[in-house]
Amino acid sequence: MLDALFQYELLRNTFYTGLLVGLIAPLLGAFIVVRRQSMIADGLSHVTLAGLAFGLLMQKKYTLLIFTPFHTGILFSVIGALIIENLREVYKAFQEIAIPIILSVGVGLSIVFIALADGISTDIYSYLFGSIAAISSEDLRLILFITWLVVSFIVLSYKELFALSFDSEFAIVSGVKAKTLNFIFILMTALVISASIRIVGVLLVSALMTLPVATAMRLAKSFKQTIFYSIMFGEVAIIIGLITGYYFEIPPGGTIVITSALLLGFILLFKKITASRTLKKDDGYAA
Q1: Integer distance in angstroms from the first to the last C-alpha of the chain?
Q2: Which pTM does this prediction carry?
Q3: 217 SS3 class
Q4: CB 266 within 8 A of CB 220
Q5: What distance lies between CA 172 and its chain's CA centroid?
Q6: Where are the membrane-spanning stretches (predicted)?
């Protein structure tokens, strides 16, 4: 793939997009995991699928070419994020119910739009599982812009987000504008999910936001280290997954997630062996 990378624009676009997604997905994922909102990625990914299916339907049935399915996917994801935040306000005592509601609606709309478009096409298949060569230069520029937005937001609001993630009541008492920050945060999450779908696909996007974080949490000694290790593991999974998917001619989503899972398994095993050796040393000293 490295040789082909310099010859074909689509492969270059995919590789650069993968690096960007490997940065922003674990970056936001670290906050999502700490907030115990891991399922939000699943909910918004299915709404994004509905947007993608709607865009494909418009192209196929009505030749509406003003927006690509990628654009309608982002639009639906943002709308879904706004609805989730509104439902969380409505059901304050049961905020987690907002995610299954939006997930169910997303699945229902996806089925309707796909059926109206005469079934699953190759385009929908690539959105479900990711694709090696599905990213245009325009898509890459849009994802680069999303990356800039997300990184800027995290850098400028890090202290407030950190406080809200670990102790929301104290943060609110301290003067943090929780409602505004949560609103922007979920919008950023929607944008990251819609951008990540081009690489890993709808069905696997949540794994890219959680598995690297789960791996990092077994090694990190601080939240900043968790973010750093999460991005590192995310980038490794992206690079290995893309190269493996290219050579075996399979969707990259599966290879990326399997790589992430293997990294997690390796770290868990490493920590278990290390803990076991430490325990034996302590027993030896005690004896």
Answers
A1: 56
A2: 0.86
A3: helix
A4: no
A5: 27
A6: 15-33, 64-85, 97-120, 140-158, 227-248, 254-270
